[in-house]
Amino acid sequence: MNILLCNERFLFRFGADRVLMLLGHGLKDRGHRIYIMANKFDRSIVEGFADKIIKVPEDSESYLNLNEFTAQWLKAKWVTLFNDDNRPDVVVIGGWPFLLAIEFFREIGVPVVFSDFGVVPVESYSGGHRAVLDKLVELRRRHLEKANAIVGISQFIVKSQSCVDSSKSTEVVAILCGADHMSRSLWNWTSIGKYTQGTYATNQSVTQGRENGKKMILNLGRWEPGCYKNSEAIFKFVDEIEPVVPQISILILADPQQTEIPATYRDKIIPIGFPDDAELQAIMNQVDLGVSLSLWEGFNLPLAEMQWLDKPVLAFNVGAHPEVIIHPWFLCQDLAEMVHKAIELLRGGGLDRETLRKASERFHENFKCEDVVTKYEALLERVASVCNEAYPITVLVDVTNASRDPANSGVIRVTRRLCRELQRFCQPQFVVWGGEDRGYVFPTRSEYHQLSQFNGPVIGAQILTSPDDNRLRLSDAAVVTSDTPAWLLLTETVLEVNGRHIRDYAKRLGMKICAIFYDAIAVLRPDLVTDKIIRDNHAFYMKGLAKCDLVIPISQFSAKQLQEFWSVEKIVGCDVRPNLLPGEFAGVERATAVEKMLPLKIDILCVSTLEPRKNHRKLIEAVTLFAHQHPEVDWSLTLIGNKYAGGDDIAEFVERACRDNPRIRWLGIVDDNRLHQAYAECTFSIYASEIEGFGIPILESLWNGKPCICHDQGVMSELAAEGGCLTVDVRDILKLAGAIGELATNGLLYARLVEEATTRPIKTWKEYANDFWDELTKHTPSTTTVNQHASERQTLNIDANHAAPSWQDVLYSGCLTKEWQMNDSERLAMAAVLHRLKPKCAIEIGTYRGGSLSLISQYANVVFSIDIDSSIPEKFKDFANVSFFTGLSQVILPTLLQELNKAGMPVEFVLIDGDHSAAGVKRDIEIMLDYAPKKPLIVMIHDGFNPECRRGMQEADWQRSPYVQYVDIDFIPGRVIEHGGGGDGEMWGGLAMAYFSPARRNGNVYVGATARRYFTEMKNRRYR
Questions:
Q1: In terms of domains, do 422 and 485 share one?
Q2: What are the phi and psi torsion angles at 497 (to 5°)?
Q3: What is the Cβ-side half-sphere exposure of residue 604, based on CA atoms within 13 angstroms?
């Protein structure tokens, strides 16, 4: 794999940096390509394992905004940093300043594993340091949920921080750090060309102190007084211990030139600088005791490092210390207990030798760096394989207008934001209509740039792009194939002269069509639509929508308009599923702390395109009347929005109003940053539109905590119903002026609306895209649909004339249950495994009556059946997602596995029918044991009624595969057959299971207890 490690620093002075560099070393040793991305690093150290080193520049203006700077830099530089050949398969992020970058990596399809070292307690910090920590906490809360997996360095970190900041769907695990790395001396001052700072400590302080009979104590961790490190407590420690053990020296990890030690302690507390690996190991070996005074630790690497050398260390019973400490005896509740135990240890006491020996063995077994790398590697491979799977749906989005329009009107905004959000689910392709002769073509680089504006989709280097002088056709790119269901999304209003050709084109390529429907304004109120092309097109466009496969209106109001239109036109339409648009503004955090007191100056904002129905004339007249009625109010009106085709008269009216009154200004088109600033600066907004399909600016105003005056009818009144809005008949200038005056002068009303705006529920773009994706998947034909024999097909319809269905009908609906050689316990077990696994590719060896095949085919996308019976393919030909092979499994199975591997189709489930010889069962098992799984694989063996199957399972060499993690031969019992005479029963049924992991195991395969017991019984068993 290509693995990218991201962290602010890769400097061996710091524990988190050291852990990440050790991980890089270990993964490099296992054959992976390692890339490093950081602001600072010890180059000579990272060059020892990194194939590519990328220095990220630091924002010279503000360290506090370094995450934002880094994310923008990555977005701008990604294409030049990586291409398709060296693109990372997975990213490991250590924290600051890459928190915001998590979203960018996910958008371009690179999975993210966050290595969580936790956030230190912020209470003891102040000033700039506190501001950075507070920012870090906020960034974690907002962005860690977007990581594919989070690895906490302890259970303490996982429970207290990782799980708190992650989403329910994020995989969260604890992988404790290793402690055996210092012997490798990966870091030494000489190698990085710096002064050997630890030499003085090693050669002078420790050696001389021991020669003088002093007890040497190492204070673990960096010297950082005034924070959770609690370094200053060492003075009290000395005061308490010196009366009993007067000859002591305390070594602290601090720069002798910059650390001020009070005169009273200078002969007892010695700063030793920052020793490298060899020096620190020498110091730890020579001192008598280590102490950690820290009041919080996510792991405490120095504690583990010193314990690895079998040196005693005392630590407080806080944070992750209980997980890392060698034995609970070394944990201390307070300083007094630490002093007491320190004296006992310095006098030769403490734990008895045998207890200490066993504790040391356990510690050395559990804290190996190699094990850490193994666990990380397995997680990274799993995350990368899952995220790089073929997507279940191919999605193409028509961006004909959004890739060319420099503005960001409502429809264009929906297209751009939806495209970006869909990148969380799949890798959508963006296309523009090239006319009937060429069909869909791919955008040019400049068109992609326009599409990506205003928080549009992230355009990666690998996306298909047309040269400026030669359009690349969709039909020539092999994007749409018969293997994967494909959807064409029409997120913009289409001219029907093109629409009929687009639908025919899509159908020829086998694509289903989904369209977003905005409104029927041009049909209901043609007087408000000055553009003749749009006005004349709309009825034909709405008729054409009926020929799509799915229409998703932006509101219930619009859905009702469309369906009523179809009814009047006597058109049988397609499925209509409303999905209300979101109110989230451009990915900006929602405003929750907004000033509720009316300001002295009232700044009014209106965001809308300058077209007739948006009512700008009456708005400006109403504001002018309000100013006349309330001369005491200092006010301004800011208009934001593009000109409208055919609406030049409105633009001229607005320009004239701006010239006549300096309090009114029109900004035209602005980017999202400027628009957000306008919302933040305004007192309230006005959305004076008479008719809408939705009205995004209303909710965007509320998202920013600012009340909105809007129409009291149609969808606007629906949006206003949950609070934050003042509704009025915007067609009436007197009433609109009155509403403006009331909101601009009534402090109680304003405070109430601000409170409602900041607390009411508002849908996010993520929620909108989730609902949109759900509708696509629900309306996608499932390849797992099984067409059953008419005689076997079951129905669950219940009415007065039908009896209730049997429990078999409920549990095994659609399955062939006659003469199925499985007991109910076995069926339920297999169904449970299939339901959990939901395999994309499955194999059954031995179909017989088709019962198990009918069950497997309901859960798996693609199923392969292998049987020697040549009549099987004809018997079960109606199983739409099953391919049949007739012949010997020892011939077909290895070839099939090889071909599936070439095709990139990892097998996830195999059922072996054991109703034949022991040799045959063993042979089939061992074929699977030679298979290297790319994804978790379950192999189940059904022994039918033949005890020979058990012998085959027993004789199979399960150690043959390094991927088998668990085997249980008897995990679900079948029927028990009673023999005559002695009443000795024999279990002939049963369903066995083996679990194959993509990660190689360490040590022997684990065999379940039932199977081990059975193996013992088998030794003296005879089979007939």
A1: yes
A2: -60, -30
A3: 29
